[in-house]
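=== RUN LOG ===
request id: a7f3
mode: sequence -> structure
chains: 1
length: 177
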Amino acid sequence: MIVERLDAARLAGHQAGLADLLADTVNGGASVGFLAPLDRAEALAWWEERAGDVAAGRLTVWAAHDGDRVLGSVSLAFPAKANSRHRAELVKLMVHPDARGRGLGRGLLTTAEGAAAEAGVTLLHLDTETGSPAEHLYRSAGWTAIGAIPDYAASPDGELRPTTIYYKHVAATALTR
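=== RESULT ===
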């Protein structure tokens, strides 16, 4: 398995695989901000819209692939405000349903946490559907839940679900952002 940080050019080269991953993840029941059924064209358009943020350094994306298809991804979103440069949001941690249970999610999470520290980030935050399998991953990786917001987002089937907010302090190793 290769985990690769994608610059704008590499993102373009992996957009089809990332679109398949996103559609399969949502259509498999994971709540990552989309309703099912999610078709490939909509997923592809969403990834294409991320290219500007990647090129501008506002978003960092990693893809895990086996050479043939993308099996996982994770991103860090960096705020533009000067008073927020010490933090980032972990977004769209996805593992293809066929690849779950083999440590890929933890590997992607560790990759993003390490890259955040190298970028001078000291605080990460995220939100995830309350009661989802992702919560076990975050808690076991040292993330702290700070509370849940009821009816925050619709699950892929359209049901309003609570979302739990998490944070984690990471030790910055440089101030390069």
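=== NOTES ===
Helices lie at 8-27, 40-56, 104-118, 133-140.
The CA atoms of residues 43 and 157 lie 17 Å apart.
=== END ===
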